Amino acid sequence: MVTPVAFPDPPLLNSAGVHEPWALRTIVELDCGDGLVGLGETFGDAPHLDRVRRAAAALVGTDPFDLAAVRRAVAGDHTPRADGQDPVARVFAPFEVACLDVQARAAGQPVHALLGGKVRDRVAFCAYLFYKWAAHPGGDPDGFGAALDPDGLVAQARLLVDRHGFGSIKLKGGVFEPAAEVEAIQALRAAFPDHPLRLDPNCAWTTGTSAKVAAATAELLEYLEDPTPGIEGMAEVARAARMPLATNMCVVRTGHLRPAFTQGAVGVVLADHHYWGGLRACADLAAVCRAWGVGVSMHSNSHLGISLAAMAQLGAALPELTYAADTHTPWQDGVDVVTEPLSIVDGAVTVPDTPGLGVTLDRDRLGRLHEQYERCGIRVRDDTAYMRTVDPSFRKLRPRW
Ligand SMILES: O=C([O-])[C@@H](O)[C@@H](O)[C@H](O)[C@@H](O)C(=O)[O-]
Ligand SMILES: [Mg+2]
């Protein structure tokens, strides 16, 4: 069964615009008919939802232990996308996770056992800071407050660190002039002297601006994420930067690995099972990174508890994961589709050893979030269009500065 859901999202700012009041996801239930149900979670945009629905229909009768057959069934009549991303990987991913959940439940083992066994009991996550408004236009203030300057961000960091004990901090930049974002990083360093810091402007800067920011933050950042577009641009910045550059934008499929690594464009790749094609594809990615001496971190988008559990299971089994993973979990403020979401305590999720992913679908919650999907009117995430309702002159520019 494939169920689209919507959940409230705060007005988080990024280089593309601002998050809309509702975030979308798609929940996959793989019912094997003998009481075994596997769970998966993926993006919620309508074209993707449509592909996931078609894949689900094509999968009926396929053996959940035969991932090659599952992948073939999912591939169907796919056509490559102009933006270079691999739609099969994206559509296969939630089914791969659901199949692993089924396989692990059938074996009475946690998913990490199927990924080679756990190398850690706790998977660290970072506090993911965003510039944000106090409220959506015309809406009531949310519980997180505004964060439009260094003081606001430091207050936000305190809130997230107090709630979840995060031991490292990432700032989503690309929102204000680079100098203002450097000031924000300096303020975070002063307030959190021992927390590793990262800054991610989502390609909002030219190579020249990126090199200047890299110089200004050389002593402050553990890595600088996607300062500028493209592998060549990143390589140019990497030659000037003292810290490693990280990416979830210029290395998003296998074909990007060789050009990025031979040019020394990135020192850290953010794995994301939702678009690399599942948990095993991310383990393969991590092994390639290890061979090239490139670090591994983990990327996130707005998501719910099935994805958090999948990330935790993967993180437990990846020896290469030496950085705290991204997660948007705190921004969802407890809203979920699972009965007991995994919690982030002392900056980490304790990885469940129970059979499967370690989370159970709550049908009432799923039903409520699906009703919200039906009512919310959003069918494709569009941060830029939403920003333009507030500032009609806004344009998504990469680079902007
Ligand atoms: O949630 C956001 O606004 C992020 O900007 C997200 O869309 C990015 O994909 C991501 O978190 C990133 O690291 O670039
Ligand atoms: Mg990023």
Number of domains: 2
- State the shape: globular
Order of helices and strands: EEEEEHHHHEEHEHEHEHEHEHHEHEEHH
Q: Any idea of the CATH class of the largest domain? A: Alpha Beta
Range of helix content = 25-40%
Q: How do the strands of the widest beta sheet line up side by side? A: 7-8-9-10-11-12-13
The CATH superfamily of the largest domain turns out to be Enolase-like C-terminal domain
What does this structure look like?
The protein is α/β, with parallel strands linked by helices and about 400 residues long. The protein has helices spanning about 45-60, 65-75, 85-105, 110-115, 150-165, 180-190, 205-215, 230-240, 255-260, 275, 280-290, 305-315, 365-375, 385-390; strands at about 1-10, 15, 15-20, 20-30, 35-45, 120-125, 125-130, 170, 195-200, 220-225, 245, 270, 295-300, 345, 350. It folds into two domains: about 1-110 and about 360-375, Enolase-like, N-terminal domain (Enolase-like, domain 1, 2-Layer Sandwich), CATH 3.30.390.10; about 115-350, TIM Barrel (Alpha-Beta Barrel), CATH 3.20.20.120. Helix content is about 40%, strand content about 15%. Strand 8, helix 6 (about 180-190) and strand 9 (about 195-200) form a beta-alpha-beta unit. The chain is globular. D-glucarate binds next to loops.
